[in-house]
Amino acid sequence: MSNSIHLKRGLDIPISGVASLKASPVAADVIAIKPTDFKGLLPRLLVKEGDRVLAGSPVLADKNCPDILVCSPVSGTVQTIVRGEKRKLLAVVVKADEQREYVDFGVKNVESLNADQIREAILASGLWPSLIQRPYGILANPSLKPKAIFMSAFSTAPLAADTDFVLGSEMPAIQAGLTALGKLTEGGVHVCIDGNKAASTPFHKLEGVTLYEVTGKHPAGNVGIQISHISPIRKGETVWTISPLMAAAIGKLFLTGKVQLDRKVAVTGPVAVNPAYVEALPGIPMKALSAFYDNSKADVRFVSGDALCGTSVGEDGYLGWFDNQVTLLHEGTEREILGWAKPFRFNQFSSSRAYFSWLCPKKKYEMDTNFHGGPRAFVVSDVYGKVLPMDIFPVYLAKACLAGDIDKMEKFGIYEVLPEDLALCEFVDPSKNEIQDMIQKGIDLMIKEMA
Amino acid sequence: MEENKQKFGFLHSTVDAFDTFLRVPGTVTRKGAHVRDAIDLKRVMILVVIALIPAALFGMWNVGYQHNLATGTEAGLLATFFYGFLRVLPLFVVSYVVGLAIEFAGAQIKGEEVNEGYLVSGFLIPLIVPVDTPLWMLAIAVAFAVVFGKEVFGGTGMNFLNPALLTRAFLFFSYPSKMSGSETWISLGKGTMVDGATGATPLSFIGDGFDALTDAGVQYGTSFLDFFLGTIPGSVGETSVVAILLGAVILIWTGVASWKIMCSSVLGALLVGWIANLTGACDIPAYYHLVLGGFAFGTVFMATDPVTSAQTETGKWIYGFLIGALCVTVRLWNPGYPEGMMLAILLMNCFAPLIDHYVTDIAVSRRARKFNVA
Questions:
Q1: Predicted ipTM of the assembly
Q2: Which of A322, B34, B127, B311 stands the most exposed, by the fewest C-beta atoms within 10 Å?
Q3: Spans of chain A, pLDDT less than 70
Q4: Taking the model in full, what pTM does it have?
């Protein structure tokens, strides 16, 4: 194949606790739908406590674009509506039925549908928010025709779920989903597969899409990095991205007429007991995973997503809509005596040669959430580019975001990045800046100013 | 310590600085990446200090050695080192006490954590001044450099001039008689100079040609090897290229300093030296510039300061090259002052943001063109 991309820069984080490739079902009696999982969604509540919903019933709508709905993954009764400060809507908690009932959207043959029919079907089902629009990583605007649609068929994030294992059996659905989405754009669907197992991954059999073989360390599996190597986003352009997980859900919508968001979730992390996969739904409570952790000392951090850009949800929190990974980390509040001055710190990982972890390249580390230092101004200049396989200047971009300088943000590539793409820059930063947060604030400012 | 924090609440930054010096803070990540690399700025800075230790130790011995040569004293290795140690120690004390006091006060006023940047600056300053610099002058210079070179811009990471070099520049322009000439470079102590001995550094003969250079030292050797080993008079830490190279290996291996700046600086110096040879402006072989004066020390430890050097990788090549080239240019075509390294680095510090500006501009527009065509 001619479309092969090799990325030299990057870093695979050697964190322990990879999930073994076996999946068991997990029982959850409640499911939460969190508006905060959807960037750019201004939520309007469509249900009230005590209402009955089916799997596929709309629960939320977007105030800006009322056609965009968010659906319930289960059937049941709306138990509580959780609100935070200033009555901000945090979650809609649905008590699940034992037997799931679905809204029937009708089986459709994607080949015979046109773009409008496909758009309407996805919007009506409440699966439209599966599409992420770049720049800015927000809800896709249904009235736009994107330049192209991108999907990364593998993940290089720390301890990420093995895409082939979790979705290998759902290829017909993914194929149907991508065929449907392909009609929404003229630029086609572009799928990046893991170049190291290009022959064995079921994704290489996808048809009607442009395939790319990508090799390299993290963040090679990030769709944003792949886009910047395939067709960088310029000012005024929009592209949509979709994860294989959500492509499968859209495919199943057309193949079965039902909204089925069931997924295999990797429970991972250094403090996970016997890390493995569970069969679950988005929005399951973390407590449903109690077999995997011991939080008797209240020192576990529950991350929905991976250790670099997941969300800390707490023991009472819920799995995110787009996530198929939970990372369990130890809260590193212990204080190490003379930590930075010790010549050796064999149990700490550093990507730099300032420590000696380069001596054991195969070793996995039980990383915790300790900050390992104090916040400082940017000092060192060459560590960030080494972990970012993109042709941009990450520190200049972060500083432009800090300064709120729109012109400079544009110049240094704010349209091409999401915080997740610079997560590794944040990881390696000796000055401990919160780079992802800076980028997100920059993006928020862009949305506000450019609207 | 926790109690002390309550009790000395108004000294929060100071207490915190000592506390985090001894123990890694127990803070955990709040947003963004949940796990972080073990490296922090304290580690980066301490590595630079470790890289400076060979040059510092050799410098102390050399102070004693030059004293012995100039005064005709016979002494063993330890006694020689000890003489130098006693001479250099006060410089370290003044540099650290004055500098850190201002840093702590600044952090206290701003309510920030004390930045560890001065650990390095404080170690550099004694190594780049003549050993007999009066301590009160040093104290004023340090205070000037820390306040006006760094704190007014917001502390480490925000300054655009290297604070250690600014200290030296302040001394040089305020007290020139103590900073150049043939009286300053050798610590005589209570002794007197033996007949025929000179206090001038070889570098001061650079304008007079190769013969003058090799005749420079009456009491000390002037072969290339002597310059390379560093058994010549000069600022405390700058003379020994061997010790500096040891430090360079540590800095490059750990990735703390940029090898690109070091390489391009050497290239720049060699090119201008070679042009001078070719045009007959100077008959000293170009490679002599690498071992004379403060070139090696400046290239390895001062030009590579990550805050004040160019930030872009291409910019680093340009920045380093111009430092090397300017240094030798000042040495060869300037009647007043034999050494050009300090001024070359300070000048390029000022230009580093401009270099970066054009490098990023060109990179961004080239990329835009590439994808507009495609």
A1: 0.89
A2: A322
A3: 1-2
A4: 0.91
